[in-house]
């Protein structure tokens, strides 16, 4: 059984005070939802305060990005050891905004995934096609390549914590959600590719989240599908009531 995972990607929103205020309002709304793993990914400056505030709560805290090396002359970067030192437990890798604006490639995703696993950070690796790729019938090719390169050279035995987020780029922040059928089809392609690269038991255990305009009113239809094991939520995760409602709706 794969445990449902619902993660918030706050992108470049919320100061530390706003982040902890969110948690104060949010935690009571989901305190009975222990069947769902809940992860908040704030900006780097909010991580320490949020990790502290989340200690007595069943909410985990993750980063939105990291470098793959432990230290070095890489101005502006944050290393995996810096994240684990402050108590972060999860990390987003290869979000489409990182790929689009900051030159993230499948190769750097692979380096970051190896590093996250080596540091016992739960990696949430984002994949997804652009609209022109979908319209040219290239979705399956794009997803297979992204998954294969991300997992290249990794011992399948090390992949137990792997989480993949399928985020069609055309659905992110656009209000255009993939239909449950489109999402389920893409998730099956991803799971089959994981099986190809890392074996069927890794594929069966890997949680594959859907992301892209997830809202309270579409969370139930998406998350009840067999191959959809949760959601990665951007815009609708910024408000405590809305994010809590997504979790409640996804669980039922
Ligand atoms: P969205 O973002 O929910 O605002 O579409 C999702 C994401 O970027 O992870």
Produce a short descriptive summary.
This protein is an alpha/beta fold.
**Secondary-structure class:** alpha/beta
Our Rg estimate from Cα atoms comes to 17 Å
Strand order in the largest sheet: 1-2-3-4-5-6-7-8
What is the helix tally?
11
Major pleated sheet: 8 strands, parallel, barrel
Name the overall outline: globular
Helical coverage, percent range: 40-55%
**Low-pLDDT segments, ≥5 res:** none
- Residue-averaged pLDDT: 96
CATH architecture label name: Alpha-Beta Barrel
For this structure, the CATH topology is TIM Barrel
Report the order of strands and helices.
Answer: EHEHEHEHHEHHEHHEHEH
The tally of strands reads: 8
Q: How much of the polypeptide forms β-strand, as a percent range? A: 15-25%
- Determine the oligomeric state from the structure: single chain
> Which ligands accompany this protein?
2-phosphoglycolic acid
Distance between the termini: 16 Å
Name of the top-level CATH class: Alpha Beta
In the CATH hierarchy, what is the superfamily?
Answer: Aldolase class I
Domain count: 1
């Amino acid at each position: 059984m794969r445990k449902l995972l619902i993660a918030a990607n706050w992108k470049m929103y919320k100061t530390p005070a706003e982040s902890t205020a969110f948690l104060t309002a949010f935690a009571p709304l989901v305190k009975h939802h222990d069947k769902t793993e809940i992860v908040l990914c704030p900006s780097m400056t909010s991580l320490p305060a949020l990790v502290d505030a989340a200690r007595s709560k069943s909410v985990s805290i993750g980063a939105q990005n990291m470098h793959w090396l432990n230290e070095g002359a890489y101005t502006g970067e944050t290393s995996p050891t810096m994240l684990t030192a402050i108590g972060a437990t999860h990390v987003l890798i290869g979000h489409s905004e990182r790929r689009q604006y900051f030159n993230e490639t499948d190769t750097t995703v692979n380096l970051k995934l190896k590093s996250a696993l080596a540091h016992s950070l739960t990696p949430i690796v984002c994949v997804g096609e652009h609209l022109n790729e979908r319209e040219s019938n290239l979705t399956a090719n794009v997803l297979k390549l992204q998954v294969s390169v991300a997992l290249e050279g990794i011992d399948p035995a090390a992949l137990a914590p792997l989480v993949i987020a399928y985020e069609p780029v055309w659905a992110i922040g656009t209000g255009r959600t993939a239909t449950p059928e489109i999402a389920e089809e893409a998730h099956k392609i991803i799971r089959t590719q994981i099986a190809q690269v890392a074996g069927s038991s890794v594929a069966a255990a890997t949680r594959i989240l859907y992301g892209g305009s997830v809202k309270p009113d579409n969370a139930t239809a998406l998350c009840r599908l067999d191959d959809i094991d949760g959601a990665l939520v951007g815009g609708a995760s910024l408000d405590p009531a809305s994010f809590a409602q997504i979790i409640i709706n996804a669980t039922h």
